[in-house]
Design brief:
InterPro entries: BTB/POZ_dom, Kelch-typ_b-propeller, LZTR1/Attractin, SKP1/BTB/POZ_sf. This is Leucine-zipper-like transcriptional regulator, 1. By secondary structure, this protein is mainly alpha-helical. It folds into three domains: about 90-140 and about 160-285, Potassium Channel Kv1.1, Chain A (2-Layer Sandwich); about 320-460, 2-Layer Sandwich (Potassium Channel Kv1.1, Chain A), CATH 3.30.710.10; about 465-510, no CATH class. The protein contains 22 helices and 14 strands. The strands form five sheets. A three-stranded antiparallel β-sheet has the order 1-2-5, with no helix packed on it. Strands 7-6-8 form a three-stranded mixed β-sheet.
Length: about 500
């Protein structure tokens, strides 16, 4: 948008004779706003042809198409891609950093203890050493604190940021490495540019030092794909200087190819190579080494999901900084991971952090079972959604309450319940659907109860009332029970209008 200027009007004669125009007009666009529509019930689209599809961010959108005998459709469907948005959000300013890395030139790189200790054993040892040094320093300074400063107020004093010195790295390559730790991928720079290839070579050197096999493979794939006639000598010389044997071998094999060798030795950069490297190129050309196929499997390392799974199962027990209480039972956890996955925890840790570091877990007014709580933690830490139908009962409303940043858990819980609802558990699922206002799930359960009533009423539900048929004539126009008080017939609210009666002491709706 540029400055507001009145657009000149042209007559019909001027427009007819105008072939080319050099006039520039500035357009002012008014402020626009987007209104989010209400979330409809999830449903599967019908089969269609000639539709458009696009993948945007973490979802795939299907628009239009031809359905039902060449009828054009204007519907749009959104499919949630199986994704795990934990670490990309942690890479951003989700929660305050818990440590600072210091490089060679006293440059700082911020981060969170939880994710780094989960991904790298080498950095985990560095952080443990820094924590021990900080604890020793605080113990030495404790006698110097005045007595009036000690007491209950000391528990709320914010500890200084943990400082970890890593003199083996420079800031820019280390930032790329940190991006990999948080997202399990690296954002490749421009392919073929010498500066970018040298940057990834420095990252590759750090990956070897920190024993990150997965990052090693990513860096090697990019470097080997980026080597060409313009940068092969620079990359080869840098690989020799950094003692990267595999990359050096790749560059030497590239140089001595019949289609490359004459062009490479005629370049000016070849004249400035070190003498040992020139000798090695000439010898490689005269007598190529025999190729020996390796039968050893390539170690691709562990993925982000595998590392976070191990971290939840015990590796990260020494780095927990929050306690989750489920019906009085404590479960240690990590604030950075919870805040990255849930807007509920993010808001709590930013503004309403409990002083004792303990958080009671519930889903609205409902306290989940221990097994369901563990399933929710697995989803938070590493995106695991495989769970029994009983856990899906409790976690169906968890995405709404905790504000998860995608609907994958809710979609799976709904599918899990619909696929596994039986006469044995239909009443439990119906009750959970009624509490969470899942109307489509509620209708599905009531449909099963009505059509499978003879089986449902005979199933011995623990502490559940036994159901029996009621004729529609026994219901008044207002929906109240018309049976006599001595008959002890009662209707749960969610069974009224479906021709079902419940045998118990009194009816909670009409008190008959």
């Amino acid at each position: 948008a540029s400055t507001c200027e009145e657009v000149p009007t042209l007559t019909s004669e001027e427009r007819g004779g105008l072939k080319k125009s050099r006039d520039v007009f500035g357009l002012d666009f008014g402020a626009t706003s987007a209104k989010q529509p209400a979330q409809p019930a999830s449903e599967l689209p019908s089969g269609r042809l000639f539709h458009a599809a696009a993948v945007i961010s973490d979802a795939m959108y299907i628009f239009g198409g031809t359905v039902d005998n060449n009828i054009r459709s204007g519907e749009m469907y959104r499919f949630q891609v199986s994704c795990w948005p934990l670490c990309p959000r942690m890479w951003g300013p989700v929660l305050s950093p818990t440590y600072l890395f210091f490089m060679q030139k006293e440059e700082c790189v911020q981060g969170h203890v939880a994710i780094v200790t989960a991904r790298s054993r080498w950095l985990r040892r560095k952080i443990v050493q820094a924590r021990e040094w900080l604890a020793q320093k605080l113990e030495e300074e404790a006698p110097l604190i005045p007595k009036e400063a000690s007491g209950t107020s000391m528990g709320r004093v914010r500890l200084p940021l943990l400082r970890v010195a890593i003199r083996e790295a420079e800031a820019r390559p280390f930032e790329v490495l940190m991006q990999f730790l948080y997202t399990d991928k690296i954002k490749y720079p421009r392919k073929g540019h010498v500066e970018d290839v040298l940057l990834i070579m420095d990252v590759y050197k750090l990956a070897l030092s920190f024993q990150l096999c997965r990052l090693e493979q990513l860096c090697r794939q990019y470097i080997e794909a980026s080597v060409d006639l313009q940068n092969v000598l620079t990359v080869c010389e840098s690989a020799a200087r950094l003692q990267l044997g595999q990359l050096k071998e790749h560059c030497l094999n590239f140089v001595v190819k019949e289609s490359h060798f004459n062009q490479v030795i005629m370049m000016k950069e070849f004249e400035h190579l070190s003498s040992p490297l020139i000798v090695e190129i000439v010898r490689r050309k005269q007598q190529p080494p025999p190729r020996t196929p390796s039968d050893q499997p390539v170690d691709i390392g562990t993925s982000l999901i595998q590392d976070m799974k191990a971290y939840l199962e015990g590796v990260g027990s020494d780095f927990c900084d929050i306690t989750l209480l489920l019906d009085g039972h404590p479960q240690p956890a990590h604030k950075a991971i919870l805040a990255a996955r849930s807007s509920y925890f993010e808001a709590m840790f930013r503004s309403f952090m409990p002083e004792d570091g303990q958080v009671n877990i519930s889903i609205g007014e409902m306290v989940p079972s221990r097994q369901a709580f563990e399933s929710m933690l697995r989803y938070i830490y590493y995106g695991e959604v495989n769970m029994p139908p009983e856990d899906s009962l409790y976690l169906f409303a968890a995405p709404y309450y905790y504000g998860f940043y995608n609907n994958r858990l809710q979609a799976y819980c709904k599918q899990n319940l619909e696929m596994n609802v039986t006469v044995q558990n239909v009443l439990q699922i119906l009750e959970a659907a009624d509490k969470t206002q899942a109307l489509d799930m509620k209708r599905h359960c009531l449909h099963i109860i009505v059509h499978q009533f003879t089986k449902v009423r005979l199933w011995p539900h623990c502490s559940r009332p036994r159901l029996s048929w009621a004729q529609p004539s026994s219901l008044s126009p207002a929906g109240h029970c018309q049976t006599s008080p001595g008959d002890s017939a009662a209707h749960p609210v969610w069974l009224h209008g479906f021709g079902l009666l419940c045998r118990s002491q009194s009816c909670p709706r009409c008190a008959c």
